[in-house]
Design goal:
single chain; alpha/beta; Alpha-Beta Plaits; 2 domains; six-stranded mixed sheet; 31% helix; globular
């Protein structure tokens, strides 16, 4: 037995049923149930289990580069199982898809079974860089979860295979096994995940599905190049005409989180076409206590509309935001 076989002997049936390439997966995809799993840790323990379920149909999985549209158009079901309280600061680091329940590890099996009971077809478990994370967690903490799946596939390995085929990486480079954030960027997915250190498990499970859809739909994987410099301003010029601009405000009319213009620029830097960011920093008070609105400007109307669709109604540091076009 190999060290891996010994390590995963508690779930040997699932461990030995790995799908290792995209063509094999596509052969089994018809009417299959794709169950994406992500584990988020807090300290040394798992704090969240995220699930995103997609019923595959007769056609290839439709790809869409905006999280909300992908979730809605593919009728994805998402669930967050909170295992540990993480403190208010870490409670909801981003707007999450699907429901959230508080439970113990012993409840994960039953919650998953209940969720999957609404679907028919072969259940295939997917994840990103799974061996040292999700598969390890299942083997050590929740081996009963393995019985729900007939096979598993690591999306990161499929991305690596595609990149090597297109000569975008070398066996000794980090590019061969890109992380989740870099993969999303390379596929042109509009997502601010790269600017947030804390992520919701269910949302990352959804991101896994988007990447898989991109691979199946042959979406180009383009290595990232340095982004154009985004101009930042500490004061607004109300008399200036702003083309392709939007105003960001707290939905409840209160103050936005205390960010500098540079921080806002970094927060939205992965949105294509961002040209400038301005905050109404007229006084020191505004710098230390926050402002009521930010302004962003894009190079095209299409880029602006994509930004508004993705960001309007989302959460930034526990503040729900509203985004409206500025004329």
């Amino acid at each position: 037995m190999t060290p891996s076989d010994i390590r995963f002997r508690n779930i040997s049936g699932l461990w030995n049923s790995k799908i290792s390439d995209l063509s094999t997966l596509e052969e089994r995809l018809h009417e299959a149930v794709l169950v994406s799993l992500d584990i988020e840790s807090f300290g040394a323990n798992a704090s969240e289990v995220g699930l995103a379920v997609l019923q595959a149909g007769k056609q290839p999985l439709p790809f869409h580069g905006i999280l909300t549209r992908y979730y809605e158009e593919n009728k994805v079901e998402a669930l967050t199982i909170r295992l540990l309280d993480r403190g208010l600061k870490y409670e909801d680091p981003e707007w999450r898809f699907g429901d959230k329940v508080h439970a113990s590890i012993e409840d994960v099996h039953h919650l998953t079974a209940n969720m999957l009971s609404r679907y028919t077809g072969e259940r295939i478990l997917i994840g990103f860089a799974m061996q040292n994370a999700e598969m390890n967690w299942i083997s050590k903490s929740c081996p009963s979860l393995a019985i729900h799946f007939s096979a598993w596939v690591d999306i990161q390995e499929l991305v690596s295979q595609r990149r090597m085929q297109e000569e975008l990486g070398s066996p000794t480079s980090d590019i061969k096994y890109p992380g989740l954030t870099n993969t999303l960027r390379a596929m042109g997915v509009t997502d601010w995940r790269a600017q947030k250190r804390r992520h919701c498990a269910a949302n990352d499970a959804l991101r896994n599905l988007i990447i898989l859809s991109g691979l199946i739909s042959h979406v180009p994987i383009n290595p990232q190049h340095p982004s154009p410099k985004v101009r930042t301003f500490t004061q607004l010029k109300p008399t200036k005409t702003h083309h392709c601009a939007a105003t960001i405000a707290a939905k409840d009319g209160g103050k936005l989180p205390i960010y500098s213009p540079g921080s806002v620029s970094k927060l939205f830097s992965n949105h294509p076409g961002l040209k400038s960011v301005a905050l109404n920093w007229k006084t020191l008070h505004h710098r230390t206590e926050g402002v009521r609105f930010w302004r962003v400007e894009f190079d095209t109307q299409e880029s602006l509309e994509s930004f508004i669709t993705d960001i309007d109604g989302s959460m930034i540091d526990n503040t729900e935001i509203s985004v409206k076009t500025t004329f």
